[in-house]
Amino acid sequence: MDVDLLVIGWGKAGKTLAGRFAAAGKTVALVERSPEMYGGTCINIGCVPTKDLVVSAEERRDSDDPQEFFRTAVAGRDALIGTLNAANHQMLEKPGVTLVDGTARFTGPRTVVVDTAEGQVELTGETVVIGTGATSRRVDLPGFDSPRVFDSTTIQHIDPLPERLVIVGGGFVGLEFASMFTHFGSKVTILDRGEEFLPRGDRDVAEAVRQTLLDMGVTIEQGVRPTSLDDDGTHAVVHTTKGDFAAEAVLVAAGRVPVTGELGLEAAGIEVDERGFVVVDDQLQTSVPGVYAVGDVNGGPQFTYISLDDNRIVWDAVMGQGTRRRSDRVAVPNTTFITPPLSMVGMDETQARKSGRNVLMAKKEVAKIAAMPRPKIVGETHGLFKLFVDADSQEILGATIFSIDSQELVNMVALAIRLGAKVSDLRDGIWTHPSSTEAFNEVLGTLEPLA
């Protein structure tokens, strides 16, 4: 079969491009190797299901039985994801789109063979989009093939809920699951190989996050490297450079690697980097003309909204004016959904100091923001606000918001940065009450030169 667009992997960018090309009258083939991944990582095993579990965990009360509550939460998660999964399949059941269940491998620059239940299918696309995503990195140490060892996907269906959970990895994924499982009722220990907690962030923010996790009951061990694992049938013992840690379950949160091993990229002449990610240019085109790589597989920021923007860039390159670039992106926010969520956009304090600008900083702990009663209303007053402003232009340079609703507030700051808004636009804005947004009224009134 020859098509105008061949998409490998049902992720955010790929499915959006498939729908757009079909609506434009083009022929499309979309290949997905797992029916459980219709719609991509985000809605099936990533953003949506984990955040659904986060919200459920936050709702648990001391009077709730942890095991029963967790099983109910997982059942609710599965019902939601099943609905979204089916809806994504239906969205692409349209004229011009051929859906192929199977595993694809390249046999030429723009040709693949797909192994399906009915046999092999050969597909050739005028334009090819690789969107196979990334998967959890495995730990290649003795004993870590135990059934008590989970990754961020498999642990979402762990049964029973572990009384004790050891998390190997102190990055954002590990912190998210630590917060979640602590609220579900597990005793969580984080084993972080780094000597410093959240080393890439501002020290005061890192300390605020660390203290919040400690307050909720998480144990954090720094400078710890696992060496092996033993499983006696009732629990696992993680042996490390700083002693042994016992638990009913172990979560490995040691980063993610691209899903490219079965694609046969070498047969197409498609280059990958030293980590295995597909090499792309500023328009997401690979080393083979007409072949693009989108989403997590191209080594860029692993967020579904980046994948959505990848779709815009490829669409513009193939069907538009060809002016969009990855380098166009400004003020891309991110959020880690611990409780409360940690969100960042633009410069942090270290970057602001190195910028060479005349910088003002506003900083305030959430518990001390009088104009923001919402945290007290919902009973979560951990966190702080930090914002940075160019003293000469009065433009906002960046923000770190560790607070309830920060995943929404950071988007407002991102928009302000993109539009070149002045600090007064946020500081003197008229916001609803009680809301988290009105924190800007008070916090931005405390701007002082960055010493």
Automatic annotation (TrEMBL):
Organism, as annotated: Propioniciclava flava
Cofactor: FAD
SUPFAM superfamilies according to UniProt: FAD/NAD(P)-binding domain, FAD/NAD-linked reductases, dimerisation (C-terminal) domain
Name of this chain's protein: Pyridine nucleotide-disulfide oxidoreductase
Annotated FAD/NAD(P)-binding domain residues: 4-306
The entry's keywords: Disulfide bond, FAD, Flavoprotein, NAD, NADP, Nucleotide-binding, Oxidoreductase, Redox-active center
Family: Belongs to the class-I pyridine nucleotide-disulfide oxidoreductase family.
Molecular function as annotated in GO: flavin adenine dinucleotide binding; NAD(P)H dehydrogenase (quinone) activity; oxidoreductase activity, acting on a sulfur group of donors, NAD(P) as acceptor
Cystine connections: 42-47
Active site: 433
Pfam families (UniProt xref): Pyr_redox_2 (PF07992), Pyr_redox_dim (PF02852)
Binding, FAD: 51, 296
Cofactor binding mode and count: Binds 1 FAD per subunit.
Residues engaged in binding NAD(+): 169-176, 255
Ranges where the Pyridine nucleotide-disulphide oxidoreductase dimerisation domain occurs: 332-442
